[in-house]
Sequence to fold (272 residues):
Amino acid sequence: MLGSTMQAASTLANLGQLAVAIYEQTMALFGFIGECAAALAGSVAHPRRLRWRPILFNIRSAGFDALPIVGLLSFLLGIVVAFQGADQLRQYGANIFVADLVGISMLREFAPLITAIIIAGRSGSAYAAQIGTMAVTEEIDAMRTLGIQPLEMLVLPKIIGLLIALPLLTAFADICGVFGGMIMAQAKLGVGFAEFLDRFSKVVSVTSYLIGIGKAPVFAAIIAVIGCFQGMRTRGGADSVGRQTTRSVVQASFLVIVVDALFSIAFSVLDL
Fold:
């Protein structure tokens, strides 16, 4: 009896500590978001403070260098979507509707989501590892000593760079995904490229395209802020860098999926 009571008390204590840790991290994250917003507003008010070289470097590393993996996975995803719908569409003689299936699903949901998850694992982890390593080696403290704001030097270029790069990557993923669906539609359903594109242009509205592209900046802000936040929270040695990097990927991917679900609910309510 005493043992079970002690075990229950220990479980409650662990749950309490976990709740306190989550609360503290959430409050710290909100504080970090506020600092980033204030720094961004200051940089917009004084454009000379923007560091364009790091911004362009981050656009290249997070955007251009990610084109192969984003294009390949989006292409394969388009093939999979068309392949999974092919048998069902053939049963009802609705082969041409594969253009509806691939076009709407890729442009509205799959392309922005798969692109964001890839970038969360690729660039978000890199942000956390880079800033975390600098925190462990006390380079960030040295920057503050020299009067250099770490947010303006390290964080803002990453956020701005990813805000520019992710919508462009999403548009590229749209093209690759639809092209993959076209190839599978021709191979499995006998729907030629011309027929596919003709149907695609009729049923896929500009709204569907803009909805997918509009999600990208929100996903970019989540990925960049979480990656930089976890990097800034790094303490101790190399094991802490790995731990914070893992947390950044998990949290960014989780939040991206949650926000995407909220977008779906909002668009359903707005009938978009």
Summary: The chain has a mean pLDDT of 85. The two ends are 59 Å apart (CA to CA). The CA atoms of residues 79 and 183 lie 7 Å apart.
